[in-house]
Structure formats: structure tokens, C-alpha cells
């Protein structure tokens, strides 16, 4: 990754505070400290939160099982691990990329962890190696993009199929039972600290760290520059190829982390696991406000997008809606969210 | 030419403004049937805008257009074509994956109530048109397989299929070989004999005098000359193109540049890999503003991009303060203190959907980050405010997005972005393009101030008054090479234009 620049401290901080044009008042420290695009992101996040809250309110009346501890816990669990994949995808969408292989990569992490464990390695080392393998897949995709010049879409489509094939080949197509996993490792996926599942704690840590990094870390700022206007970034001395490469690696590594946690949770490695997950993940990020053209997106928005999809899924199950209809409804939500956003943008641009 | 009949094409008092910039301030032009009418003028004089109006791409703010005496209001290029007005663009705009024949007849494919493609018919008719212009182009080939000059010929052939009454050609020979040009002129003379009115835009004096009947000269969005070429000399025409008073107010020049010791920037025999820059050498002193003039496509931008590592160099050296600058990429140049302002502000200069502060920090993130790589937003905002003040940037704070600013203020953001890197040499490519007069003057004064503080500045500009008024010295680039150097009183628009177009007094005699 473009390495952290050690700052020269001091610098511009000594100048008197004042507005730019004679008439403009000096913006106060924090009210103004948010970019123009940030305000719109907040509106969207608030809007999503509102919709989720409304849906929850309706559901708690419609179904007595909705607002029970068990159901909320189940929703949060199913959503937390996928949420880690969503975080990686958010960063990748901001740089203007996309990764269709995350479902396969999640599965690869499962299969590699399981395989190495069954070969006698301790599960912790196996997990580290599995995440490294996933990062390598990301590096291969990133290499195709930054080195050869393929689009993220095509490169990751190819690796979606390649990696899935690899998973099937490694396991001979049969799920591997890992009931012998030590309790310490299973704790990651199944345990709880003070009543809160560890999975959720990991998820919250990843979200908090990545949200902070996206807003405040200078390396992540290069990601925004590259996604916003790659040519201008290049002309600003940013090595955009490297930025795209490392973001692709990051996304795959986070998918690997999610895969390892799934392994600990289920105690099994299924070579078909995660098929179709990429679409759910991308849908969540887009509902959360990221643009496929790059340059915009927030972790919080993406996580809320995923939360909305999870609440909808849970609601449909509780309301006994057939699974066939469920997909249709989720697709319609994606379409509606993206259309509304696009129409609002067009109106803004025409002003 | 029959003086009794109305002219084929008559424009009267045509005006057009783009925001704060006046492109045309009342232009009249008359082209008769059976004549080739040359339209000349400097870059930015308004030729292209005028031709876009005639071909219906752009609607004028005022003025009238008459075709065969009939007043017309064109509402689009398709309308203009139906009226018999054809335009050959300066830039090639063909569908690369379609065949030559399809491209030539694109306007009629899908019309006429014919549901099926008749490739054989298209090819036959395309071959007929091409036979006169360039018989060796196979109408069945894909455009992507043709050379640049062949593509240009297809672009011309495309206009010939329209069966038009008025044909406009915007610098059609820029990409053509000598032989191809003569074939083109044979065709044009044939069309002229059949009564077509041809408007021919060109910088090449020799061509104009050999093939055109009359000429109209545009300057600053007005027509300043229109007469038959028979009684005119090339000298007169060039003087008309440039003869303008320096009405703009420029800052005073440097009092004298210390040219002892090592220059700030030395470029020695620089070539790029595509041969757009062919062995350029020059030196830049502290406190100097060096202009680089030249026609469009002469290689000015390519030169600047090669110097700062955005284009790979094949040969040559760049030295900064006497020390060789090893440039593998733009970052190395930036680290050495060399910063480049792109001519294309929207595509490469600013991040339109990011805020002013985020833009200004883009090249100098280390100045606003903490030891561990976290952004200090107060420092970022402060840096943007400070530079904004120095550049007289007008905005509601530094957190509004760049897209909300006017062109002039966007350009100031782009310049602030460079200044944030604290460079010692600035390469400014068209620093005032698309900028209103007030901001233009502010940018000129800023550049002079920076030079006075010891910076070395290279200004690439298509506007000759800017070169003359702002720069201490000017290089003229032609076909990727330095065609000459002018300074002091010798730096006139006429002299610059002569060097840029390769037209010397001897040739006109």
C-alpha cells in the first residue's frame, strides 16, 4: 500500500483563522469540517436508519417473534460476518473497483483452514495461512487490474470461477466436518463476552476501525482521490495503480477473515458456501450510498444497507413469505434505492 | 459566381457567450456558391464556435443565418445536414468498430424505412465517393485498422456523402500527407465547379493562397477582414490575425534575470517515446517566466508532461539546480520541486466532487497528517484557507465541493493544489483557459509574484497576448521541436505566429 507518510509536524497550522472571501465567516471547527459530499451521506444514513426503524416497528406489531432476543441475536449474527465482507467491498467501490469473487474467497478461507487443520496444523496458524491465501487471490486480481489493465469486473469474474473451482477441487466436492476444532477457536464463532457474541464484537471493531480510517487516514484519502478522478489523481502524483492493487488485496483479505470466522461458527468447511454472497454484499454497499463509478461511499452507509437487507429477509421469513418471492423483493429494494439516488443526483447536477 | 443570386451562406451579427467568456461578439461571413472561402484566425479567435453554429451543434445567442437567402434556425446537427450543410470536424469522430462504409452512411442507416442492412449497397456507394478521394481505402475495412490520415479522409468522405450545398472543413489537412492533401484539393475543386460553397479553416498560408478564392479573418470573436485573396498578401493576412492592442493589463516583467550560475531547470535533448517531443533543450532561470507558444498539436503539452515524468522519456536529461533529476514517474518530479498544471482542468486538474480542502491537500497529504498517517482536518482546512487567501479564491468556505465553483475559481483550486507542494518550478499548461478576465489577471499577477519570490515558471499558452504580456522570454514549439526563441521587443504576435506555423517571409515571395 502507498506507505504512510510520516508528517512534517507543524506546517500550515500557524496561520490566522479566517474565512476565505472577505464576506465569508470563519467556519467553526467541526461544523464546517465535513466535506460537501459528507452531508449528503449523512442524510442517506439517517434515511436508511429511519426506514429500518419503521420496518422494525411494523414488524414488531405484525409478528410476535420479531422483537425477541433470539431473533435479534440471529439477525445480528448472520449480518455481522457478511458485514466484514461489506467493509472491504465498500473501500473497493470507493476506488472505483468491484470484486465478484468475494463469495468464492470466503469459501476458500473456509476450505483452506479446514484442510490445513485436518492435516494436523493448529487452527490459528491455519487461519492465518488461509487469510494469506485469500490476500493472494486479491493480489492476483489487483495484478490483472493494475498490471495488465483488465477491468475489476472481468478479472474478479474470472477469479470467482477459478477460486470456486479450487474449493471444489481441494475438498473433492464434499463438505468437511471439523467437529474436532478446539473450543478456543470455536469461541470466535460461537462464544460470547458478557452476553455479546464475539462475532459481533469483531464486526464492530472492523467497522469502527475502517470507518475512522476512511474518514481520517491519509492513505484512505488516496483511495477517494483515485476513485473520484483517476486521471487527476495521477496528475497529482498519486500512483493510482498501486492504490487500486492494495485496495483489492484488502477486500480479499477481509473476505478471508470472514471465511475464517464462518469456519469457527459452523465447525465445517462447505465447498459451495458463499455462492451468491457477492451480489448481496454489493447490493448492500450500493444501497448504502457508494457509487459504482467510484469516489463516494461510507462504511456506515454500507453497513446500514446490509442491515436493511437483513431486516427485510428476517421479516419475510417470519411472515412466511416463500423464499422465491424474497429474492424478488430484495432485488426491487436495490432497484428502488439506486433509482432514487440517481434521480436525486441528476436533479442536483441539472441545477 | 453570380452576384445577382443571394449568397449560399450568409451570417450576420452572430454572437455567442459561454458563461463569462464571449466566444463570438458579432460575426458576419458570406460564402458564395462555387467558391472556396478560407476562414483564418488564431487559436481561440472563435472559428470553431462559428462553425459549430453553422452546423447546428451550438445555438447562437443572437444573429441570423441565411442559406440561399432563406433565414434558418438550426436546432441540431441532423437539421443542418438535412438543409445541406456538412461539417468535417477537426477531431476524428468515427465509430472505430464499424466499417468505413457504415461510418460514411451512418446518418441514413436505420432511416428510410429499410429494416435490414444492405452492406453490399453501402460498400458500393462508399467506394464511389472514396474513388475520387482515396481509392486505396477499402470501404469494408474497420476504421480501427486505418491510419490516422486515412481516418481523416473517411471523415471527409462522410461529409461528401451528404450531397450538401455548404461544406465546412476544420483544418482537414492537419493529419494528411502531401499526396493526400492534393487529392483532397482536387476533390474540393471539383465540388466548387459544381457550385458548392466551401468554407475552409486552416493555418497553412500556402494552402490558403493556392486553393482559396476569398478569406475572412476572425479575431477576438469578430470578423476583422474579408476580401478576395487575389489582391492580398500573406503578410497582410497574418497581420490581421494578430493585429490587436494589448488591452489586457499584465503585471510588470522581471527587472533583469540573473543568468549567471546554474539555471533552476535545465532540459537537455529531451525526446519522448512517441516522437511527439523530438530533442528539446532549454533552461529556466530563477525568477523567470518562460512562455511556450505553438499551434494546437505542436507538442507543447507533451513536452511539459515529458519533463515532469507523466510521459516516459526516451532520451535526454532534466536537471534541477544543476543536479540531474531522475524521473521515473511524476512523484519523483514533485519530490524534486517540479509541479505541473494540466491544461485539462476538468479531467485532470481538480476532483470535482471533492471539497476545496480535500483538493488542495491532494498532493501534499504529508503536510496535513500526523506522525501515524492520520489526517489533521484542522490543518487541512487551514492550508486550504491560507492558499485560498493568497489566490483570492471566492467561495463559501473550504468545504464546498469544487464542482460548485466557477471556472476561474476551479482553476485557482488547481493552482493551490500545486502550491501546497511548495514547488520551486511550476509548469503551467494553459493556466487561464476558460477563465474570466478578472480571474485571468489575478492568476497573471500571482504567477509574477511567485516568480519574484524566486520560483521559475513555464507558461504554455495558446493565447499569444498572454505569452507576450506575461512572459520574459518565449520558446515556440513546432512539430515537437523548438522552432525558435524570442524575447523583449522581438516577441511580437506576428513573429510568434510565423515561427509557430513555419511560414517565413521568403516563402510568401
Tag the structure with descriptive keywords.
heterodimer; A: 351 residues; mainly alpha; two-stranded antiparallel sheet; two-stranded antiparallel ribbon; B: 509 residues; alpha/beta; Rossmann fold; 3 domains; six-stranded mixed β-sheet; 18 helices; 33% helix; 24% strand; globular
CATH class of the largest domain in chain B: Alpha Beta
Order of helices and strands of chain A: HHHHHEHEEHHHHEHHH
CATH architecture of the largest domain in chain B: 3-Layer(aba) Sandwich
Going across the major beta sheet of chain B, what is the strand order? Answer: 6-7-8-3-9-10
Number of helices of chain B: 18
**Global shape of chain A:** globular
With strands numbered from the N-terminus, the spatial order across the biggest sheet of chain A is 1-4
Spans of chain B of at least 5 consecutive residues whose pLDDT stays below 50 are none
Distance between the termini of chain B: 29 Å
Any low-confidence stretches of chain A, pLDDT <50, length ≥5? 1-36
The structure class of chain B reads alpha/beta
Count the beta strands of chain B. Answer: 20
Rg on CA atoms of chain A, Å: 22 Å
Task: For the record, give the distance between the C-alpha atoms at the N and C termini of chain A, rounded to a whole number.
Answer: 39 Å
Radius of gyration of chain B: 25 Å
Verbal overview:
The complex is a heterodimer of chains A (351) and B (509). With 351 residues, chain A is an all-alpha fold. Chain A has a domain of 208 residues. Chain A is built from 13 helices and four strands. In chain A, the strands form two sheets. Chain A has a two-stranded antiparallel sheet with strand order 1-4. Chain A has a two-stranded antiparallel sheet with strand order 2-3. In chain A, strand 2 and strand 3 form a beta hairpin. In chain A, helix 6 packs across helix 10. Chain A is globular. With 509 residues, chain B is of the alpha/beta class. Chain B has three domains: 234 residues, P-loop containing nucleotide triphosphate hydrolases (Rossmann fold), CATH 3.40.50.300; 155 residues, Rossmann fold (3-Layer(aba) Sandwich), CATH 3.40.50; 76 residues, no CATH class. In chain B, the strands form four sheets. A six-stranded mixed beta sheet of chain B has the order 6-7-8-3-9-10, sandwiched between helices. Chain B has a six-stranded mixed beta sheet with strand order 16-17-18-13-19-20, sandwiched between helices. In chain B, helix 4 packs across helix 5. Chain B starts with 8 loop residues before the first strand and ends with a helix. The mean pLDDT of chain B is 86. At the A-B interface, helix 8 and helix 9 of A face helix 10, helix 11, helix 12 and helix 13 of B.
Amino acid at each position: 500500500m502507498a506507505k504512510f507518510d510520516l508528517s512534517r509536524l507543524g506546517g500550515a497550522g500557524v496561520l490566522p483563522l479566517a474565512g476565505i472571501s472577505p464576506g465569508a465567516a470563519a467556519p467553526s471547527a467541526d461544523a464546517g469540517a465535513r466535506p460537501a459530499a459528507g452531508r449528503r451521506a449523512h442524510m442517506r444514513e439517517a434515511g436508511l436508519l429511519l426506514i429500518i426503524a419503521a420496518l422494525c416497528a411494523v414488524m414488531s406489531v405484525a409478528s410476535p417473534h420479531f422483537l425477541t432476543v433470539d431473533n435479534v441475536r440471529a439477525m445480528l449474527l448472520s449480518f455481522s460476518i457478511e458485514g466484514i465482507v461489506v467493509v472491504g467491498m465498500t473501500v473497493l467501490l470507493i476506488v472505483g473497483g468491484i470484486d465478484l469473487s468475494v463469495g468464492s474467497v470466503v469459501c476458500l478461507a473456509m476450505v483452506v483452514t479446514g484442510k490445513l487443520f485436518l492435516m494436523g496444523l493448529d487452527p490459528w496458524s491455519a487461519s492465518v495461512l488461509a487469510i494469506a491465501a485469500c490476500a493472494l487471490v486479491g493480489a492476483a486480481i489487483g495484478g490483472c487490474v493494475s498490471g495488465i489493465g483488465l477491468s475489476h469486473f472481468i478479472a474478479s469474474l474470472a477469479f470467482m470461477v477459478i477460486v470456486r473451482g479450487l474449493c471444489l477441487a481441494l475438498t473433492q466436492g464434499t463438505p468437511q466436518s471439523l467437529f474436532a476444532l478446539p473450543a478456543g477457536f470455536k469461541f470466535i464463532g460461537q462464544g460470547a463476552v458478557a452476553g455479546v457474541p464475539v462475532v459481533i464484537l469483531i464486526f464492530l471493531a472492523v467497522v469502527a476501525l475502517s470507518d475512522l480510517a476512511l474518514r481520517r487516514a491519509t492513505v484512505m484519502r488516496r483511495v477517494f482521490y483515485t476513485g473520484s478522478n483517476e486521471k487527476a489523481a495521477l496528475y497529482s502524483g498519486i500512483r493510482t495503480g498501486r492504490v487500486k492493487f492494495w485496495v483489492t488485496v484488502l477486500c480479499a483479505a477481509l473476505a478471508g477473515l470472514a471465511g475464517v470466522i464462518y469456519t469457527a461458527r459452523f465447525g465445517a468447511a462447505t465447498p459451495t458456501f458463499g455462492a451468491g454472497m457477492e451480489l448481496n454484499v454489493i447490493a448492500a454497499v450500493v444501497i448504502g450510498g457508494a457509487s459504482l463509478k467510484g469516489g463516494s461511499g461510507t462504511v456506515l452507509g454500507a453497513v446500514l444497507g446490509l442491515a436493511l437487507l437483513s431486516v427485510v429477509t428476517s421479516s419475510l421469513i417470519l411472515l412466511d413469505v416463500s423464499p422465491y418471492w424474497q429474492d424478488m423483493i430484495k432485488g426491487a429494494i436495490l432497484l428502488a434505492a439506486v433509482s432514487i439516488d440517481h434521480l436525486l443526483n441528476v436533479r442536483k447536477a441539472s441545477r | 459566381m453570380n452576384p445577382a443570386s443571394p449568397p449560399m451562406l450568409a451570417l450576420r451579427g452572430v454572437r455567442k457567450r459561454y458563461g463569462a467568456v464571449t466566444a463570438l461578439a458579432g460575426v458576419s461571413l458570406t460564402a458564395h456558391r462555387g467558391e472556396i472561402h478560407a476562414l483564418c484566425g488564431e487559436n481561440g479567435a472563435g472559428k470553431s464556435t462559428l462553425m459549430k453554429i453553422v452546423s447546428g451543434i451550438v445555438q447562437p445567442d443572437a444573429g441570423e443565418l441565411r442559406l440561399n437567402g432563406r433565414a434558418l434556425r438550426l436546432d441540431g446537427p441532423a437539421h443542418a445536414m438535412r438543409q445541406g450543410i456538412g461539417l468535417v470536424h477537426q477531431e476524428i469522430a468515427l465509430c472505430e468498430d464499424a466499417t468505413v462504409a457504415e461510418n460514411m452512411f451512418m446518418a441514413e442507416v436505420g432511416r428510410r424505412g429499410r429494416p435490414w442492412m444492405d452492406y453490399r449497397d453501402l460498400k458500393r456507394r462508399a467506394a464511389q465517393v472514396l474513388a475520387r478521394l482515396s481509392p486505396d481505402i477499402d470501404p469494408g475495412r474497420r476504421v480501427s485498422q486505418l491510419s490516422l490520415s486515412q481516418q481523416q479522409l473517411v471523415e471527409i468522405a462522410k461529409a461528401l456523402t451528404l450531397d450538401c450545398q455548404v461544406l465546412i472543413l476544420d483544418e482537414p489537412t492537419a493529419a494528411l500527407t502531401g499526396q493526400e492533401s492534393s487529392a483532397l484539393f482536387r476533390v474540393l475543386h471539383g465540388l466548387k465547379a459544381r457550385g458548392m460553397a466551401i468554407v475552409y479553416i486552416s493555418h497553412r498560408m500556402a494552402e490558403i493562397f493556392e486553393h482559396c478564392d476569398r478569406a475572412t479573418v476572425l479575431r477576438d470573436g469578430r470578423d476583422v477582414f474579408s476580401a478576395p485573396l487575389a489582391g492580398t498578401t500573406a503578410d497582410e493576412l497574418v497581420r490581421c490575425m494578430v493585429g490587436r492592442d494589448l488591452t489586457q493589463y499584465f503585471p510588470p516583467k522581471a527587472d533583469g534575470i540573473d543568468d549567471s550560475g546554474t539555471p533552476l531547470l535545465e532540459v537537455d535533448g529531451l525526446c519522448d517515446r512517441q516522437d511527439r517531443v523530438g530533442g528539446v533543450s532549454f533552461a529556466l532561470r530563477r525568477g523567470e517566466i518562460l512562455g511556450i507558444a505553438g499551434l494546437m498539436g505542436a507538442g507543447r503539452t507533451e513536452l511539459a508532461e515529458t519533463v515532469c515524468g507523466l510521459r516516459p522519456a526516451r532520451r535526454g536529461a532534466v536537471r534541477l539546480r544543476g543536479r540531474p533529476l531522475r524521473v521515473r514517474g511524476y512523484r519523483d518530479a514533485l519530490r524534486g520541486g517540479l509541479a505541473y498544471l494540466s491544461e485539462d482542468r476538468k479531467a485532470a486538474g481538480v476532483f470535482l466532487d471533492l471539497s476545496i480542502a480535500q483538493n488542495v491537500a491532494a498532493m501534499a497529504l504529508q503536510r496535513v497528517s500526523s506522525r501515524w498517517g492520520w489526517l489533521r482536518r484542522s490543518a487541512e482546512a487551514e492550508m486550504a484557507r491560507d492558499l485560498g487567501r493568497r489566490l483570492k479564491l471566492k467561495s463559501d468556505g473550504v468545504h464546498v465541493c469544487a464542482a460548485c465553483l466557477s471556472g476561474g475559481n476551479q482553476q485557482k483550486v488547481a493552482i493551490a493544489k500545486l502550491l501546497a507542494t511548495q514547488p520551486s518550478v511550476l509548469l503551467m499548461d494553459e493556466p487561464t483557459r476558460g477563465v474570466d478576465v478578472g480571474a485571468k489577471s489575478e492568476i497573471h499577477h500571482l504567477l509574477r509574484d511567485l516568480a519574484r519570490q524566486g520560483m521559475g515558471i513555464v507558461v504554455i499558452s495558446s493565447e499569444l497576448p498572454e505569452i507576450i504580456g506575461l512572459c520574459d522570454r518565449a520558446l515556440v514549439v513546432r512539430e515537437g521541436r523548438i522552432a525558435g526563441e524570442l524575447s523583449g521587443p522581438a516577441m511580437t504576435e506576428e513573429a510568434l505566429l510565423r515561427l509557430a506555423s513555419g511560414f517565413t517571409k521568403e516563402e510568401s515571395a
